[in-house]
């Protein structure tokens, strides 16, 4: 018997034995039916409220597809409707799909293989980390690379090979002791697995998962999505609240964000996940290897209060435990250029939902999923999720905006020098070449492998601004030339101290 301590003048005080742990309450078919019955009205209300053009929802329970339906239109201003076979871009829901592919390709042991031998162009700043970082390290975001490393290179138009070969310039946090979400870290790991198998990643995914599972409308190539006549076009929300069609080609980060799929195919994948790698009695993915992807690997969000709950990241999955102690696996995908998706599963209940939308993130995909599970467990949602979720996405979008309001030129702003003082070619080991030229009575800055042009607006002294573009756009950003004209710093490219270019001529 355990002893807490001694009370004055008495013998040992026995500690009562704790009651045996109780298993979480089991959801039954009536609970699931109640939640499924709410989906149509829930989606309709959220679409009307936000204006999101199209949605597809699939629910799997006990190896059956109990709901598969499309809502709304594939593209604003056109009549074609979304159905269960309409293909959507998945954004970061591609990550748990990629981890499924890797599990099928390498089994259990392959996750611990170093990436470097298979991907010579991929190096990190620390040579020791470069030689030791594994597929599992990169899939669980614990390599030490900074948050979203490489994404700005993609925005500028660089291809995957260039991006992976330039991550060596990024500063590193402690290896395996820190968490930072990186699309191109995970991409490097997946590409290393494909290289070891001697095939492109897109073919490995097709041969390992899509074809064996009968996911005929699923692809890791943007061109397959773009050429599919039954596709949901991405949309962004304009300042006036209207939605406008948008195009996002994510091939450079295909394993991390480049999958496209339909609600029907995603339901098939959910069945495979919830049946431990099997479909209709056929083994597709080794059970032990797939199970490994569901384990917590990194602390993604530490608890910030005594009663708080730690959030984990596994191998391509967010890993959490709900109020009843159930394992909950989920992932959200979000393209600012036009897609918002969510997948959530309770493996112990053999219950999962996937929500696909063709609009930039305003909370709809996550809200449908949260409403579904709260209705199943508690009879109704606990709150209106959209304001909270939309606020989080807005906060993330605003996080990297400049603290300087470049739209308001200071009244006492010092004048600029002559345009010729700034024109020329500047170089940067990470971002490549930057040129500044006189054009149309002002200055134009050009960046990227197929130079993107940005007209500079004078702000004050040697500082100008331009409006950023792309998935990671942050509004107006500053461009500051040094007084001697030898360097120029582009503010939004300088998050990790990499944004200064040196004059070449």
State the gist of this model:
The protein has 505 residues and is of the alpha+beta class. It contains 14 helices and 25 strands. It has 2 domains: 29-398, Beta-lactamase (3-Layer(aba) Sandwich), CATH 3.40.710.10; 419-503, Beta Barrel (Lipocalin).
Helix content: 25-40%
Query: Which regions contain 5 or more consecutive residues with pLDDT less than 50?
Result: 1-11
**Looking at the structure, what is the overall shape?**
globular
Which whole number gives the mean pLDDT?
A: 94
Terminal CA distance reads: 81 Å
Q: Into which percentage range does the β-strand content fall?
A: 15-25%
Strand line-up of the largest beta sheet: 20-19-18-17-25-24-23-22-21
- The CATH level-2 architecture of the largest domain is identified as 3-Layer(aba) Sandwich
CATH structural class of the largest domain = Alpha Beta
Question: Total helix count?
Answer: 14
CATH superfamily of the largest domain: DD-peptidase/beta-lactamase superfamily
**Number of structural units classed as domains:** 2
Tell me about the largest β-sheet. Answer: 9 strands, antiparallel
Kindly provide the radius of gyration, computed on alpha-carbon positions and rounded to a whole number of angstroms.
Answer: 25 Å
Number of strands: 25
SSE class: alpha+beta
CATH topology of the largest domain: Beta-lactamase
